[in-house]
Amino acid sequence: MTTKFIFVTGGVVSSLGKGIMASSVGQLLKKQGFKVTMQKFDPYINVNPGLLSPSQHGEVFVTDDGSETDLDLGHYERFLDENLNQESSVTTGQIYARVIEKEKSNVYKGATIQVIPHITDEIKQKLISVAKSTKADIVITEIGGTVGDIESLPFLEAIRQARKDFGYKNTLYIHTTLVPFLKAAKEIKTKPTQHSVKELMSLGIAPDMLVLRSEMPFDKGIKEKISSFCDVKKEMIFESVDVEIIYQMILNLKQQKIDTQILKHFRLYPKQQQDLSEWKELINKIESLQKTVKIAVIGRHISFHDAYLSVNEALKHAGYQQNRNVEIKWLDSTKINAENVGIRLKDVQGVLIPGGFGQSGIEGKLQSIKFARENNIPFLGICLGMQLALVEFAKNVINIKKATSKEFHPYAKNPIIDYLKDGKTEKKTGLHKIKIKPKTLAIKLYQTTNISERFRHNYEFNLAYEKEFLNKGLVFSGYNQNGGVEIMENPENDFFVGVQYHPEYLSRPLRPHPLFIGFIKAVKKFQNS
Ligand code: GLN
Predict the structure, then answer these.
(1) Mean of pLDDT over the chain
(2) Structural domains in the chain plus CATH codes
């Protein structure tokens, strides 16, 4: 079938939950039997989102093909339950870089390079390439930022042109806005939406559909008013009321039949009976959770929880499966030391150290690992978390006092954690294979020998120390094809596991990750002990 394109823009304010709305629509269409993929156009100039600071921009998400992307792709993957690729994440910087590169190699044969058509053509090319590489029936493209921003103009111009290129019935524009409730006037206000639609229309895009974010449900009158002012049919206006559980958005939009209207616009018929029972069950389950476990997540960017978004989600997914709410105690590693670690970790039933870069807060993390190890508190170390668990073990169990990582001490001789051995200086990112050893906790959790996980790191365990660690009872339960260590566990404890990869990227609400499930199970046991 001809590919259908849905474009999602936002107006009035940022943080409207556009991405969650867009991916909920994606899930509904997928359940109608279509192959759906998602894409984000980000107006910022950065060429490599992998370099964005997590404390400013939130976590860097990594896809199977090793692209370092905006965190929205994580939402897309979790809602859609589809793996995305490099084509799904597009920034202004990447578009310009590509055009400049082409200009340098004289692709344009002396033409004057302009925003229209050269930049906009390059953007439209991304619509086509994502459709091709995923063979999707429906592509949903979210345009970052808010309509009216200078930065997003070329993207908006490109999607405007898309209707002419691909045809009316193959394109659909959804605009999301805010309808604020003014307490003093006790009224829902539609004016910001009217202005935002006007702004969009001035750029040549007349939205086919509106999704109005609101604190509370509103009556028909509001829709009627907006319909007549904004020239959008009443049945094409939807509300997105604040939800406690984000996955509820899928069911809320379904109830309003947004997917039916989209298919109607595209002249498509459902390919299968839509079954949303899994989502309904999940939400019922979450709503009925009684018990809570408390887990410390120890990092550097804890004031901005989006910096560890996927870890946060993965913990919650496993919690749902194990009938537990997960409460996270965010701890700033720079504020933990040998004196206060016991107090800080007194009320938690699990300790998780997520990935990280650089040496700030290392001491606090090492102290936390020591405390978890010595008190048999379930511990999960991810990437930097595993590297530090190895350094801690070397220091305090093997008695290598100078144990460190090349990352913190570039001149250290024979560090425990050294440069990646494969000879490349570049980072290792994306999906890679791991072989799991028999008779380990890892194989009990995964129930299989060959797994693939997503990576993002520069350093790894120095195999020169392998024997010494093994002699002291540590178990290396997962290795890569070059013999490098990817999973470690300490059998002295009930659950003390470190992994060089990022299991959180593969966790899905309906398919929690086995490692996180194992961790939460151990946390429950510890709580009851
Ligand atoms: N900084 C470490 C490395 O580059 C760990 C990376 C991570 O935690 N993602 O190897």
Answers:
(1) 95
(2) 4-281 (3.40.50.300), 290-528 (3.40.50.880)
